[in-house]
Write a structure and sequence with these properties.
Mean pLDDT: 95
Largest sheet: 4 strands, mixed
Bound molecules: ligand EPZ
Low-confidence stretches: 426-430
Strand content: 15-25%
Number of strands: 23
Length: 430
């Protein structure tokens, strides 16, 4: 397992580009199963999760040509030979469950291992199944798998008990080929949903209202191919902006849509950081003395993103005063706290509440990344800390960020990726 060696205390300065969005790219790759024609996707980030999704599609029989240097993906799902996926593939990444809707709509049958829980929560899929069942799918669950079958999906009126991102995406994709009209209410409104709908509409689907809580989809008999560029990754952008402030630096993050980060920018400003939009696709963030404590509550979009909670908590661990962080979306998303406390932070947890007592500084230590966003939080802590940090289990980071250590080094970070010694290698020196 590779690790990162990070020597902290260097203010990050300069400009950095954001890659395409992981959470927009994954459902859009799944949506190509809805058409027999070729789809070309641009701005594809070179991530572990993207490669897993490509393996999922190839496992179903799709022809995939991935040019990672150019961020270009060409997919043709004309001849899908399979409608079932092996557990190890789905087990690697929950988002592979996003093929459920497209396969049911296109092939009328599907068999998928239930994704099960992950580090941040139990993460059930009841809302996905309930929505698709309302459209006429019949599901049976046995041996850890869900089997779905339909004589042909029908439009339906669906109200989501919670604005789940994944359930919204699966239902929209299925409804594009269903007979009649689907009205989806209390839908998720994340920018990634809008990007998916824009891509589907360029494939000649009829999705109206994406980005609002009420989405209307007129089913069509066939979708075509398209060429679509993925939106910038707002979570990567937020992580980088926080890295600039937490290290006492000054960063301009480019290829970002400021509108997608309103709640983060408001919280950073409230904490006293300097934040400024420099043009339609760039944001500058700089330290402005020690940040102040602020309270934070994660919510579905446009509320504060749960995917930025761990990184923001690292900033609060170094802020003046006491902050309260409430995690409302996932029940187990505080796993980075134990390591932050190992680095000298003072954070107490009570269920979904964390009380963060700001400290003047953190110190480097060996820590293990618990999940993707927890890894990012520990990386930020290490960049700000006194001394050296060894960050283990960095494979979590590569799920959502490409070549991050190289890109941060260009901004002044003292960071080195150390490959694990192969089994039985002679260890030299102490
Ligand atoms: C998406 O996950 C993102 N993943 C997550 O990002 C993100 O944290 C999450 O949305 C919330 O914004 C991708 O887009 C690939 P949900 P998803 O369905 O779709 C409950 C990252 O770090 N729920 O909106 O799985 C669920 O348990 C990842 O990039 C049900 O109860 O999230 C959770 O508590 C992590 N039943 C809440 O809803 C269901 O059927 C939100 O889940 C579905 C969800």
């Amino acid at each position: 397992m590779d690790r990162l060696l990070i020597r902290g205390g260097v203010p990050l300065r300069g400009k950095i580009q954001v890659n395409g969005s992981k959470n927009a790219c994954l459902p859009i790759i799944a949506s190509t199963l809805l058409t027999r024609d070729t789809t070309i996707i641009e701005e594809v980030p070179d991530l572990l999760d993207v490669r897993t999704m490509i393996a999922v599609l190839e496992g179903l029989g799709a022809a995939v040509d991935y040019r990672q240097e150019q961020g270009l993906l060409r997919i043709n799902s004309g001849d899908l030979s399979k409608t079932a996926l092996p557990a190890d593939l789905v087990g690697r990444m929950r988002a592979s469950f996003l093929v459920l809707g497209p396969l049911l709509a296109r092939k009328k049958v599907v068999r998928l291992p239930l994704p099960g829980g992950c580090a941040i929560g139990t993460r059930p899929v009841d809302l996905h199944l309930k929505g698709l069942a309302a459209m006429g799918a019949q599901f049976s669950i046995a041996n850890g798998c869900v089997e779905g079958i339909t004589g042909g999906l029908q439009g339906a009126r669906i109200y989501l008990d919670f604005p789940s991102v994944g359930a919204t995406e699966n239902i929209i994709m299925a409804a594009t080929l269903a007979r009649g009209t689907t009205i989806l209410e209390n839908a998720a409104t994340e920018p990634e949903i809008v990007d998916l709908a824009n891509c589907l509409n360029s494939m000649r689907a009829q999705v109206v209202g994406a980005g609002t809580a009420r989405i209307r989809i007129e089913g069509v008999s066939r979708l075509g191919g398209t060429r679509h560029a993925i939106i910038p990754d707002r979570i990567e952008a937020g992580t980088l902006l926080l890295a600039g402030v937490i290290t006492g630096g000054d960063l301009t993050v480019e290829h970002v849509l400021p509108d997608h980060l309103k709640s983060l920018l408001a919280k950073m400003t409230e904490a006293g950081a300097f934040v400024e939009e420099v043009g339609p696709t760039a944001i500058r963030a700089a330290a402005n003395g020690r940040t102040a404590a602020v309270d934070l509550k994660t919510m579905p979009y446009p509320g504060f993103s749960t995917d930025l909670q761990p990184q923001f908590m690292t900033l609060l661990a170094l802020s003046g005063g006491t902050s309260m962080v409430i995690e409302t979306v996932f029940e187990n998303r505080f796993r980075h706290i134990e390591s932050l406390n190992r680095m000298g932070a003072q954070i107490q947890v009570e269920g979904r509440h964390a009380i963060v007592q700001g400290r003047p500084y953190l110190t480097g230590a060996p820590v293990v990344a618990p999940d993707l966003r927890g890894a990012a939080a520990l990386l930020l802590a290490a960049l700000a800390a006194r001394g050296e940090t060894e960050l283990f289990a960095v494979h979590h980071l590569w799920r959502g960020h490409s070549r991050l250590e190289e890109r941060l080094s260009l901004l002044g970070a003292q960071i080195e990726r150390v490959a694990e010694e192969p089994e039985g290698a002679i260890k030299t020196g102490s």
